[in-house]
Amino acid sequence: MSFASPFSLAICTITALAFLGLPIGHSMIAGSILYLLLAGQDMGTAAEQLLNGMYTNYVILAVPLFILAAEFMNIGSMTDRLLTFCNALVGRFRGGLAHVNILQSIMFAGMSGSAVADAAGSGRMMQAMMTRGGRYTASYAAAVTAASSVIGPIIPPSIPMVLYALISNASIGYLFLGGVIPGLLMALAQMVIVATTARRRNFPIEPPVGLRALPRITWQAFPSLLMPVVLLGGIYGGATTPTEAAALAAAYALIVSAGLYRSVSLRGLYESLAVSARSTASIGMLIAGALVFNYVVTAENIPDTLRGILAGWELSPTAFLILVNVVLLLLGCVLEGTAILLVIVPVFIPTAKALGIDLVHFGVVVVVNIMIGLITPPYGLLLFIMTNISGEPLRDIVRECLPFLWAMLVALAIITFVPETVLWLPRLMGYQG
User: Global pTM?
Assistant: First the structure.
C-alpha cells in the first residue's frame, strides 16, 4: 500500500486530527470524507452510511437508556442503600471497605452497564468512606474503585457488549449471559488481591452489623437489588428485547428513586438528563465516525486482506486469540475503548469466524480486554476519573493499581483459554454456538 494512497492519507489525517485534540469520532468522519474525495467516490456516501447505520440498528438505542438508568440511580438513594447492604455483608472482614467497594461494583454492574457510571457514581462515596479517619490512603482507595469499576461492563447489562453485537451480529442476550462468570472471576481475583494486601498492611476491620439489623438493611435495599432481576428477567423471559429492557431499567430506576425513596428533586432530574445527553452524544459521535470509517475499511478490502495474511501465518485458534489479546491490550494503553471496539475489532471478526471461534466467547474476551485498558496507563480513562475525584497524583494511583492489573490479566487468560467460563451459562439457556 502506497503512502500516498487515499487510504494511507485518510489514516494519517485521522491520526493527526486526534493528536491535535479533535474528538476521535470527528477525526474518523473527516478522514473518511477525505478518502471518498481522493478515491473519486461520492462524498455523500459518508452521510448515507452514517444515517443508515444509526437508523437501522435499533440496538443502539439501548446505550443512552442504560446511561440514563445509571444517572437515575445516582440522583436517588439507590446507590447509598446498596453500599449499606454491601457493608453489612463484607465490611466485617479485614480490609472490609475495599471488599465493599468490589461487591458494590458487582451489584451496580447489574444495573448500569458502564464502568464510567460506576466510578463517577458510587466512586465518590467509596472514596470518602475509605479515606475517612485515615483508614486507607487516598491512592489505594482510588485504585480499588478504578479496578472494581472494570467489572461493570462485563456482568450484564453491558454497553460495550451492545456495541459488539452491533458490529458482529452476535446475540446480545447470550453475550450478556456469557459475561456473568467472567465478571465474577474478575471480582474474585480483585478480592484475593485485597485480602492479601489487607493482611500485609494491617487494614482495619469495620464494626460488624448485628443480625437483627441485617433484615432491615436488606429490606431497604431490596428495590435496588431487584433491578437486575427485572432487567434480565425481561430479556431471558422473552418479555422484552434488550433495548426495551434498557428502557424498563431507566423507568424502574426513576420510579424507585422518585416514588419509593422520594430522593429526586427537579434539579437533580434535569441534571441527570443533561449528563445522559452529553454522554450519549459523545458515544454517538464515536459510533457515527466508526460507521463511516468501517465503509472505508470495507471498500479497501482490509478484513479480507488481514484474513489472508493471518491464513498465511497458519495460526491456530489459540494462537489467534493470543494475538488478539496482545494487540488489544497494547492498543488499550493509548486508545479509548469504544474506538477500539468499533474500529479495530471488526477487522478481526472475519478471521475469528474462519477459525471457528465462537463469536460470543470472542466478544466477551474482547470486552474484558477493553475494560482492562481502562486502568492501563498512560491513557486509562478510569485512572483519570479517579485522579480527579481523589486529588492524588496519577503515578500513585497507577502504582496501587498494578497488583489488580496483574490479577485481571490472569483472569483474562482463564477466560481466553477455557471457553466454557463464557459459554456454559448461554448453553444452559439453549445457545447452540
Answer: 0.78
